[in-house]
């Protein structure tokens, strides 16, 4: 097996995209390649697309796989890090997939796998916060909602490897249900999927939004960036829906602070990247309103500046640490 080079590959594999990045040993990002995931094509096809993204990123960096020491990958769902199996990933329909074994066979590299949001949490913790806080919670709003926990300076997996699945906290037991989540989960109320569902439902009920002029009545090609443009145009419906998602996120953040008392709550994911300017003040205000007096002291709530690169950065932190 290869793995004697001075470069690392990080991959962020999610429900909608596969992002591969090549880094040097000082964590400088050299090149990235992004592909759509296309989970409907099945497990084998998705693994082929991950392989293709990795090879293309290495080639774009003017390198060969022999220059790569190891690869880290963040995968959706519950991951068993030692075996590299994806135990269950609801957003891509995977169950018990030996991803590490398959990728090592295809690429000839040591591959280290973690949950995608845990990997993103590692990236923010080590590269953005320089490993300074002893405790941190990562919360990521994207296609779904995920999270990661740093406790006593270490990534915490839990006895079942599923610690940090903050998206499945029940925020409103009588609330909305989307996909295969339980009713009223954080994910079903504040993910991009939930936000889009709420907008489309409102339009079907006759409410007005500039998005129908931009994208057509079915809003089929809607993206988070479209919501940002609508907000800046003074769109009242989008303003209301985004504010509701931010309020629910504030409730979730308050719960996490009450239970864990972290030094930092870092928010990321595509929704925060696109709408953080509008959402973060609401999130912070709502969380503080709900916390017991004094509970908010010493806690920072921030939007990660790593953006789309948090996952690949954390995957490379993982690869470098575990390939020593």
What does this entry look like structurally?
- With 324 residues, the chain is of the alpha/beta class.
- The protein has 2 domains: 7-123 and 309-322, ATPase, nucleotide binding domain (Nucleotidyltransferase, domain 5, 2-Layer Sandwich); 131-306, 2-Layer Sandwich (Nucleotidyltransferase, domain 5), CATH 3.30.420.40.
- Helix content is 40%, strand content 22%.
- The strands form 3 sheets. A 5-stranded mixed beta sheet has the order 3-2-1-4-8, with helices on both faces. It has a 5-stranded mixed beta sheet with strand order 11-10-9-12-13, with helices on both faces. A 3-stranded antiparallel beta sheet has the order 5-6-7, covered by helices on one side.
- Strand 12, helix 9 (270-290) and strand 13 form a beta-alpha-beta unit.
- The model has no long low-confidence stretch (mean pLDDT 94).
Large-scale geometry: globular
Strand-pairing-aware structural class: alpha/beta
* β-strand amount: 15-25%
The radius of gyration is: 19 Å
Number of domains: 2
Spatial order of strands in the largest sheet: 3-2-1-4-8
CATH topology of the largest domain: Nucleotidyltransferase, domain 5
Rounded average pLDDT:
94
CATH homologous superfamily grouping of the largest domain: ATPase, nucleotide binding domain
* Termini Cα gap: 15 Å
Counting DSSP H or I runs of 4 or more residues, the number of helices is 10
CATH hierarchy, class of the largest domain = Alpha Beta
Helix content: 40-55%
Reading the helices and strands in chain order gives EEEHEEEEHEHEEEHHHHHEHEH
CATH architecture of the largest domain: 2-Layer Sandwich
Strand elements, count: 13
């Amino acid at each position: 097996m290869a793995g004697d080079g001075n470069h690392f590959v990080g991959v962020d594999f999610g429900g909608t995209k596969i992002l591969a990045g090549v880094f040097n040993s000082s964590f400088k990002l050299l090149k990235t390649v992004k592909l759509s995931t296309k989970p409907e094509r099945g497990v084998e096809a998705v693994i082929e697309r991950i392989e293709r993204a990795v090879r293309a990123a290495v080639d774009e960096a003017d390198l060969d796989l022999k220059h790569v020491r190891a690869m880290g990958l963040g995968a959706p769902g519950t991951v068993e890090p030692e075996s590299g199996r994806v135990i269950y990933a609801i957003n891509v329909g995977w169950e018990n997939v030996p991803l590490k074994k398959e990728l090592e066979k295809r690429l000839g590299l040591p591959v280290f796998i973690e949950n995608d949001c845990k990997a993103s949490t590692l990236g923010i913790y080590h590269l953005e916060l320089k490993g300074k806080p002893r405790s941190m919670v990562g919360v990521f709003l994207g296609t779904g909602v995920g999270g990661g926990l740093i406790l006593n300076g270490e990534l915490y997996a839990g006895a079942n490897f599923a610690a940090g699945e903050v998206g499945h906290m029940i925020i409103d037991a009588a609330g909305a249900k989307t996909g295969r989540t339980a009713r009223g989960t954080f994910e079903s109320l504040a993910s991009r999927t939930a936000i889009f569902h709420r907008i489309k439902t409102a339009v079907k009920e006759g409410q007005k939004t500039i998005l129908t002029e931009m994208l057509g009545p079915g809003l089929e090609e809607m993206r988070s960036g479209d919501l940002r443009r609508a907000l800046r145009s003074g769109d009242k419906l989008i303003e209301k829906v985004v504010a509701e998602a931010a309020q629910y996120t504030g409730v979730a953040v308050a719960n996490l602070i009450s239970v864990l008392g972290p030094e930092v709550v870092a928010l990321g994911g595509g929704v925060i990247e696109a709408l953080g300017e509008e959402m973060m003040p609401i999130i912070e205000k709502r969380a503080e309103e709900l916390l017991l007096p004094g509970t908010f002291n010493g806690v920072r709530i921030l939007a990660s500046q790593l953006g789309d690169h948090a996952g690949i950065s954390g995957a490379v932190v993982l690869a470098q640490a575990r390939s020593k």
